[in-house]
Amino acid sequence: AQSVTQLDSHVSVSEGTPVLLRCNYSSSYSPSLFWYVQHPNKGLQLLLKYTSAATLVKGINGFEAEFKKSETSFHLTKPSAHMSDAAEYFCVALDKIIFGKGTRLHILP
Amino acid sequence: DAGVIQSPRHEVTEMGQEVTLRCKPISGHNSLFWYRQTMMRGLELLIYFNNNVPIDDSGMPEDRFSAKMPNASFSTLKIQPSEPRDSAVYFCASSLSGYEQYFGPGTRLTVT
A108 CB contacts (<8 Å, ≥6 apart)? Predict the structure, then answer.
């Protein structure tokens, strides 16, 4: 069965340092994978998507993610965190509409 | 485009009352999804429609919940009778052919 696992429920980084949010998937094929961000009291906003074209995907707000089939991973990264990045992030496989449990990102001043 | 529109944004009701949540998808999108988000259970897919037809309602908690999509530009999620454990944020999302989904701002439901 297809599944999406976000390895960390909370991640804290200092402003200006790199961000890494981890996501692993299990599937018998290469799924379409997405990252969404949810700011407090807001709906979910699409950050980026992987659809079997380029394995390195660039999204909005300086985020990017790399699809690694050998590791079944789709980790989200950003070189330098900003205070406005504090939010909850969801890794999603939309073929079967499977959401990860979410990772709450905290940015320390 | 105005994006996905949900109404009301906040709803407070008493246990036993009927609650109706409304959603207007993005024009041209043919798939519509209803989600529920709580601290305990996270984000749960309740039901989704394709071309106004319910495709998968396995996430609907029980018979108290019902959803309709009478046309391509409108959907409702109804809870009757409502219970305190239904308190959550309900999101509607739409997409073109089930691809990337665009979410509405949500309806925060409080049942007292």
Answer: A12, A13, A14, A15
